């Protein structure tokens, strides 16, 4: 009897590493992608929706619905992935359209149908990508992040402290150029902007595999080790977006905002060689 596939919704703001993660998960036989939801981040929401629809067309999976977030457009970081989010390649507009349901409505409906876990991308104990305190996703809406962390949901947080252990090198990228395969050829076109940013920002000859690592950890949690504790998010001030982990090893007498809250799992280490191999295998059709 075949195992039941895990159903996944990807909340995304494509994004070169988002593109890689989407392609990786679409070639992962253990899971079924039941939708993409789009929001602002690397680009504004409207462009994120366009990019998501475009990526599904590239993958030949236009059967997967795309639902768009409604609401404010806050700060974006288009200098990392290009003004279009996909390496400044000026791809033609997709033929598809987002569904009428908002992303929030779609997520709630699907969550009620298929109870599961929540995967978050943030940081613990390292300087971050938005500023020294905050990871971009958490910085964008720290209040919402704090609600999720303390909601009692089954959360696995895979942050920058762990994904920075996973690097796609220049030599790895060269393999895409040599492979006559749809995803490999596509990525060979868009990756230069991402590599250039990493050379300037991190002085490294390679790129960190943020979203591919997170999505693979959701499929196979054995790829990471994790600790468990209570996480709160700083919502104001100079440390807005800072995530703080309380491991429960010290007992406090007073009742505070940290009392009686649910714990979550936080990734600590990653089996980086296995993650890189899985990414290359999926993206090159091995």
UniProtKB/TrEMBL annotation:
Ranges of residues in domain Inosine/uridine-preferring nucleoside hydrolase: 8-112, 125-275
Protein name stated in the entry: Inosine/uridine-preferring nucleoside hydrolase domain-containing protein
SUPFAM superfamilies assigned to the protein according to its UniProt record, in alphabetical order: Nucleoside hydrolase
PANTHER family: INOSINE-URIDINE PREFERRING NUCLEOSIDE HYDROLASE (PTHR12304), URIDINE NUCLEOSIDASE (PTHR12304:SF4)
Family: Belongs to the IUNH family.
High-level lineage: Eukaryota, Viridiplantae, Streptophyta, Embryophyta, Tracheophyta
Native organism: Eucalyptus grandis (Flooded gum)
GO cellular component: cytosol
Annotated InterPro entries: Inosine/uridine_hydrolase_dom, IUNH, Ribo_hydro-like
GO biological process: purine nucleoside catabolic process
Single Gene Ontology MF annotation: purine nucleosidase activity
Domain of life, per lineage: Eukaryota
Keywords in alphabetical order: Glycosidase, Hydrolase
């Amino acid at each position: 009897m075949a195992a039941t596939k895990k159903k996944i919704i990807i909340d995304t703001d494509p994004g070169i590493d988002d593109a890689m993660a989407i392609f990786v998960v679409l070639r992962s036989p253990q899971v079924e992608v039941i939708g993409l939801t789009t929001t602002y981040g690397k680009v504004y929401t409207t462009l994120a929706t366009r990019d998501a629809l475009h990526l599904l067309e590239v993958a030949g999976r236009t059967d997967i619905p795309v639902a768009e977030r409604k609401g404010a457009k806050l700060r974006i970081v288009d200098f990392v992935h290009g003004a279009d989010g996909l390496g400044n390649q000026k791809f033609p507009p997709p033929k598809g359209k987002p569904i009428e349901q908002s992303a929030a409505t779609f997520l709630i409906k699907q969550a009620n149908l298929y109870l599961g876990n929540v995967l978050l991308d943030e940081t613990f104990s390292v300087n971050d990508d938005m500023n020294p305190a905050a990871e971009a996703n958490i910085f964008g809406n720290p209040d919402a992040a704090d609600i999720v962390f303390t909601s009692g949901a089954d959360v696995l947080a895979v942050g920058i402290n762990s994904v920075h252990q996973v690097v796609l090198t220049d030599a790895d990228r060269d393999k895409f150029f040599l492979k006559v395969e749809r995803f490999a050829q596509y990525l060979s076109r868009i990756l230069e902007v991402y590599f250039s940013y990493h050379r300037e920002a991190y002085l490294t000859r390679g790129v960190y595999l943020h979203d591919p690592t997170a999505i693979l950890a959701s499929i196979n949690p054995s790829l990471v080790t994790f600790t468990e504790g209570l996480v709160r998010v700083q919502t104001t001030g100079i440390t807005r977006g800072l995530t703080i982990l309380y491991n429960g090893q010290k007992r406090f007498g007073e009742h505070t905002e940290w009392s009686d809250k649910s714990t979550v799992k936080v990734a600590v280490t990653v089996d980086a060689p296995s993650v890189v191999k899985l990414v290359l295998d999926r993206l090159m059709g091995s």
